[in-house]
Amino acid sequence: MGMLRTILKRLRDLFSRIARRSESPANHSLTEVETEKNWLNLRYHADGQIKKPDELENEMENPPNLIDEKLLDRTSGSLIGMALGDALGAHVEFRPHAYLLANPVKDLEGGGTWGLKKGQFTDDTSMALCLANSLVVRRGFIPYDQLVRYKWWFEHGYMSSTGNCFDIGAATSQSLHEFIHRQTVFAESYRIPLEKLDYLSDP
């Protein structure tokens, strides 16, 4: 994706600024950021299986203050509409035009390329949910946090309807592999434990 490539370019500058602020490899000047909203972080069942978006509903908390109901309706509607539209076409993804003419989509169905169940969405919605969660928890556009969540989806199935990353585009995969590589190099250079790397704040 072009957006991921743009974010990676910005990350190169970000890592450079972080490195300049670090007085020594043993004393980096970063702080850890982990949301108090547990459903926005990686969550697992007792058996080690990741919790899927629909399973996190019981862990969600009501906002502490009054919110704009009209804005909430618009936001919810756009996300639900996106997921429904994605699920509606999931079973015909990658089908040729002739097939679609002969078999027009009229209702939610299972099957297709990925053998999804009726109503399950694809990687497009998963990545959009990663972006939405990042915007909520960081209260703004933070490229590093967004890429971390895309990585969680890629490696752990975060925000996937099936609990795993069953499809990913070539450009997205390449970009995320590059991001993971840069994370690892940075962690080794500044002696940052890998388990803390995803929760570093931006400078």
TrEMBL record:
Binds 2 magnesium ions per subunit. GO terms for molecular function: metal ion binding. Pfam families: ADP_ribosyl_GH. Transmembrane segments: none annotated. The keyword Metal-binding applies. This is ADP-ribosylarginine hydrolase. InterPro entries: Ribosyl_crysJ1 (IPR005502), Ribosyl_crysJ1_sf (IPR036705). Its cofactor is Mg(2+). Mg(2+) binds at T122, D123, D124. Keywords: Magnesium, Metal-binding.
